[in-house]
Structure formats: C-alpha cells, structure tokens
Amino acid sequence: MRKLFAPAVAALALAGCGVLPGPPGSGGEAPTTSAAAQPTQEASAPAQQTPAQEASAPAQQTPAEEATVIATRTAKVSAGDMTGAGRVDITSLRRQGKTASLTWTITATEGKVNVHNGLGRGPLDLTVSNVSLIDPVNAKRYRVARNGTTKDAECVCSGTQGQFLEPGESSTLYAVFAAPPPDVTKVDIEMPMFGVLNDVPIS
C-alpha cells in the first residue's frame, strides 16, 4: 500500500538557511529569506471506459514507481515506541529558481516504521521539517522553508500524521528549501531516523 502526499502552498517565505556547524537554532545560523509560489495540484476524475477500452488500456504506474532513485540508504529506525527497519530513496532534488524541491520515499522493510513523528522537530511536529540540506562547499545548512516568518509559520513540506508503515508499505514525501548557489551541484541530506545521504546531485 502506498501513501502519497502532494504540496499545496502559495506565497511562501524561505527561512532557515544557516551556517554550520552550529546546532539547530544556535547563534551560528544566519537565516536566509526569499519568496516563491507553490501551486496546488488536484487530481481530476478519470473518464469512464468501456469494458473493451479497459481490457486494452496499459497499466499505469505511480510517480514513485516511475521515478529514478538518485540516492538510497537503509537503517534500523526508531521513533516513539516503535522500532523497525526501513529504506529511504531520494527520487528528486530539483533546483527551481531560488528554491530547491526534494522528494523521497520511505519504505518499511522490517517491523513498523513510525513516520508519524519521526521526521519533525519535536514530538508534536507531524511534518518532515527536520530534514535539511547541507552544502559541504560553503559549510551551510538549508532548513525546510516556511510560509511566513512568525514562530507559528507552517513548513512547506509534507505532513506525516497517521503514517505508521507496515513491512512493504511506503510513503512519498517532499520538502522545499532555499536553493544553494548555482555552482553547488551536490549536497548532503540529513534525515532523521536514517542519518546522512552524501553527494546527492541537484538537477
């Protein structure tokens, strides 16, 4: 069973680009702010087909099945009172003007994987807001963008509420960041539960 989540944000303000190696929220971070628009995508109802058309129509794949994996990592994962094993597949890291969009899929391979509160910045943060990009050339950390500058501004990223993956189940997630400089072609991705994925190419 596959759970898919699509972005829906407008007029976002990018915040949270910091200088390493300071910890999250430390004085060593220098926030960067810019703005972009994230269009809402809605699925349209499929047209009805006759039995003959259904028999001849080719099988459709989900976007995650069609995507090319550009980086992968497996790990024993633990969040809350759940322990299991899973695999993260990075399927896209795409520069779009001043922003960079990251898409990945988490698949449970053993036990139960708690995505519900395993990727946020706290037990009540049911998002993937604690994922970050690290620019090793300029020693900068890029945190997930938010749709404002106030402390209650929401992240421009997937929500994870209710996601507890059984073996074989997967979830496709996304997050938007401020884009590194154009001459930076690879970054490291720091992902809670899974650790760091090195040298992920930016397209």
Total of domains: 1
Which architecture name does CATH use? Sandwich
Q: Main sheet: which strands, in order across? A: 1-12-7-6-5
SS field, number of helical segments = 2
Question: Any idea of the CATH class?
Answer: Mainly Beta
As residue ranges, the low-confidence spans are: 1-15, 21-65
> Mean pLDDT score, rounded?
76
What this model shows, in words?
With 203 residues, the protein is mostly beta strands. The chain has one domain (2-37, 64-186): Immunoglobulin-like (Sandwich). Helices cover 5% and strands 42% of the residues. The chain has helices spanning 51-56, 63-66; strands at residues 2-4, 9-13, 17-19, 35-38, 71-79, 82-96, 99-111, 113-114, 132-135, 140-143, 164-165, 170-178, 186-191, 195-201. Strands 1-12-7-6-5 form a 5-stranded mixed beta sheet, with no helix packed on it. Strands 3-10-9-13-14 form a 5-stranded antiparallel beta sheet, with no helix packed on it. The chain has a two-stranded antiparallel sheet with strand order 2-4. The longest helix has 6 residues, at 51-56. It is globular, with a radius of gyration of 18 Å. Residues 1-15 and 21-65 have low confidence and may be disordered.
